[in-house]
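Running this now, will post back.
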Amino acid sequence: MIEIIKRPIITEKAMKLGEQRQYVFEVDPKANKIEIKKAVEEMFEVKVESVRTLRVKGKQRTRYTRRGAMRGRTPLRKKAYVTLKEGYSIDLVAGAET
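Update: finished.
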């Protein structure tokens, strides 16, 4: 079985969405919304209301070395915005007070 949820995304924007019962995760690019919903419900023992996904294209990167310019790309990533049902929450940052 593939690892569907790679990691939670902890940024200022993602933390503000937490107040609205929305959480952001980096997920496997091949995972669909149904798989993401099941994975979140099993992992955090919550009920999911909806899942929105988006794909972040990789960027071109250039690094200059003694041997010349090395060019490459960052990988494609997929994010999932998960909205939980009323009364559920996920504690992503333990010990953080706002």
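The mean pLDDT is 91. More later if anyone needs it.
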